[in-house]
């Protein structure tokens, strides 16, 4: 497999499965892979085969019944196929697990099915129809990478689209059981190679089990060499034997030798978590934890969305680099996750609207950049595609003099209403107050001292207060830049023309919400003043004219001349990091890092074999800038997954890219203090 310059596989559209549909003796059609010349499941009884090979051979019913750990039971599968294995595991979990248990499914797939083919394949089992519908509702675009789906309150599925060995090498997570599936070794030798078993051994919990339909010698030798004990057990149907087994001592994960500072903190108790800050970063983190059954206290001085998340309307979009980098990968994954997350959260579109976003190319430099982006990113059209002037005008519902990029899964949201909704979900208690002190508690958690002299004691804490995070001693020294942004609003006449999609160039303009047209926003680094400025309204009008030439004149033709004096607006302060990537991860003990990694200042290749020391149970989600709707929900999942000792919703290098310690290490290497 080729890799991109940033060390990750290319970000691209995955090839989808090429199928034939072949009828069995009863006339029922089932999918047949053209690429591998093989069936997806037994024509004799595919479901019974799955239950025999994967569910029973891994002893899942009894293990589910006995599962009492706070983290989820994790199953990792090589080859998602039709999803039958995972739906059967979900069904067994529902039948046998305790009500408070959780199941986390991870599956790799190099050739994902089209949604229509998947629906047809799963229609063979009507009693799984409700589960199949949940899967199909969230079925991701065929983009290489990790796609997190929330199938049920207790069940999560991570789809890793790409080569199995490649995907497992990038996975940050560990299995309790393996479904070693995929087309037969003789049909698909590229998957069943020695590296697969080595990655399995490195991604297993002690005692992790496996089961597979095959007894091929290459599989037995590979499993044994990687440390798995295997045994032959009765196969299904006409197949006399299959393999099952376990691994006593997994292979140590060697990935962190060059970056020991990114080793995650050891899991600790998390029955009660305090989240400081009730903007989109804080409320989405609170929701991610509450969904896992954790009690959350959300602490906010002025109420939900008082700061940068307080606009009535905001754009849900990203601007991806022409050449793939870690930041673009994070933001694209975030955009796709936010789309699925909001769809599940608000299917009626009261809090958001996936109308799409047009990112225009109003000058030659941007047109060249977008052309280079399309050359370097062969992504599905349902994610992003280039459009000419006519198509852009049709999508926008307004005449445009240039084309651009169309993002079909983007749109706009109501940040203030969204934060208020999240803050009032079950399991979350909103506490008004300003956190003055944050100190370790004798019992092992944290004590938060509020401005009214009251206290909150929590097992763990997430700081999500934008630039105000620097007021807490543990976050001081972490670079956070204030960026002032002002939006402008105009109540449109009923006859006035209006954009049908969010249209972006230097700024953005959104379709009207409740009759109000919102556009902007200014971007002024190192300015933390919150008053409304007429100069900023004028700047927004000028940017609107550059984005939609002639639109202001058309409004004047409907009796609505645009002027700074006729506009309403809101100014807010966002936080940004120096590299414009959010901070999402455990807070490093900066003094300890400067001591442990001092040698890097003299020679950056001399990496001490010392795990990074962090403030125990202290996390941060900040510096989301003006793209928080696309980044904060995925970062919330990242933090919740770390706190709950789950597989991560991003590849390990991307989780490292978000780690706040990246700036500390950079400072040490450069001799900064």
Could you characterize what this model shows?
The protein has 673 residues and is α/β, with parallel strands linked by helices. It has four domains: 45-249, Vaccinia Virus protein VP39 (Rossmann fold, 3-Layer(aba) Sandwich); 266-308 and 417-479 and 579-595 and 613-669, FAD/NAD(P)-binding domain, CATH 3.50.50; 357-408, no CATH class; 481-576, D-Amino Acid Oxidase, Chain A, domain 2. 29% of the residues lie in helices and 25% in strands. Strand 22 (446-450) and strand 23 form a beta hairpin. It is globular, with a radius of gyration of 26 Å. The model has no long low-confidence stretch (mean pLDDT 95).
């Amino acid at each position: 497999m080729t890799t991109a310059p940033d060390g990750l596989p290319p970000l691209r559209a995955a090839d989808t499965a090429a199928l034939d549909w072949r009828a069995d003796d009863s006339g029922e059609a089932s999918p047949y892979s053209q690429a591998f010349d093989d069936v997806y499941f037994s024509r004799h009884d595919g479901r019974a085969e799955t239950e025999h090979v994967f569910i029973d051979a891994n002893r899942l019913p009894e293990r589910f019944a006995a599962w009492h750990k706070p983290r989820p039971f994790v199953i990792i599968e090589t080859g998602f196929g039709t999803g039958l294995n995972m739906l059967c595991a979900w069904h067994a979990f529902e039948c046998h697990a305790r009500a408070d248990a959780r199941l986390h499914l991870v599956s790799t797939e190099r050739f994902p099915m089209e949604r229509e083919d998947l629906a047809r394949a799963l229609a063979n089992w009507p009693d799984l129809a409700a589960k199949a519908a949940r899967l199909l509702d969230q079925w991701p675009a065929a983009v290489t990478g990790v796609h997190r789906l929330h199938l049920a309150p207790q069940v999560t599925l991570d789809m890793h689209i790409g080569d199995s060995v490649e995907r497992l090498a990038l996975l940050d997570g560990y299995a309790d059981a393996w479904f070693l599936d995929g087309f037969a070794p003789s049909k698909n030798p590229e998957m069943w190679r020695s590296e697969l078993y080595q990655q399995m051994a490195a991604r297993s919990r002690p005692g992790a089990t496996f089961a597979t339909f095959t007894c091929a010698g290459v599989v037995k030798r590979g499993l044994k060499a990687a440390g798995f004990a295997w045994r032959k057990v009765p196969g299904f149907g006409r197949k006399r034997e299959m393999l099952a087994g376990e691994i006593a001592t997994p292979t140590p994960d060697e990935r962190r030798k060059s970056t020991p500072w990114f080793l995650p903190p050891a899991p600790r108790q998390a029955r009660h978590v305090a989240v400081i800050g009730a903007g989109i970063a804080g409320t989405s983190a609170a929701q991610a934890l509450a969904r896992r059954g954790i009690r959350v206290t959300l602490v906010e001085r002025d109420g939900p969305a008082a700061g940068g998340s307080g606009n009535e309307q905001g754009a849900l979009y990203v601007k991806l680099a022409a050449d793939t980098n870690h930041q673009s990968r994070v933001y694209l994954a975030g955009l796709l996750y936010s789309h699925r997350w909001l769809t599940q959260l608000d299917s009626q579109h009261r809090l958001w609207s996936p109308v799409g976003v047009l990112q225009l190319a109003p000058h030659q430099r941007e047109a060249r950049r977008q052309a280079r982006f399309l050359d370097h990113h062969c992504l599905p059209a349902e994610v992003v595609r280039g459009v000419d002037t006519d198509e852009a005008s049709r999508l926008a519902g307004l005449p445009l003099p240039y084309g651009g990029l169309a993002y079909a899964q983007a749109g706009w949201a109501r940040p203030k209403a969204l934060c208020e909704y999240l803050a009032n979900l079950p399991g979350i208690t909103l506490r008004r107050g300003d956190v003055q002190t944050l100190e370790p508690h004798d019992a092992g958690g944290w004590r938060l001292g509020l401005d009214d002299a009251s206290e909150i004691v929590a097992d763990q804490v997430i700081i999500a207060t934008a630039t105000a995070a620097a007021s807490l001693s543990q976050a001081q020294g972490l670079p956070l830049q204030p960026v002032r942004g002002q939006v402008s609003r105009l109540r449109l006449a009923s006859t006035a023309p209006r954009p049908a999609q969010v249209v972006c160039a230097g700024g953005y303009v959104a379709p009207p919400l409740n009759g109000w047209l919102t556009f902007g926003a200014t971007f002024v680094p190192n300015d933390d003043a919150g008053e409304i400025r007429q100069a900023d309204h004028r700047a927004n009008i000028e940017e609107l004219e550059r984005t939609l030439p002639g639109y202001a004149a058309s409004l004047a033709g409907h009796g609505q001349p645009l002027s700074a004096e006729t506009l309403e607006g809101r100014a807010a302060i966002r936080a940004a990091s120096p590299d414009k990537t959010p901070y999402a991860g455990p807070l490093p003990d900066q003094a300890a890092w400067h001591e442990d990694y001092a040698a890097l200042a003299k020679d950056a290749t001399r990496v001490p074999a010392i795990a990074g020391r962090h403030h125990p149970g202290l996390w941060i989600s900040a510096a989301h800038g003006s793209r928080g709707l696309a980044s904060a929900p995925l970062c919330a999942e990242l933090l919740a997954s770390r706190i709950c000792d789950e597989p991560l919703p991003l590849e390990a290098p991307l989780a490292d890219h978000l780690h706040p310690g990246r700036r500390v290490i950079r400072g040490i290497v450069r001799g900064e203090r």
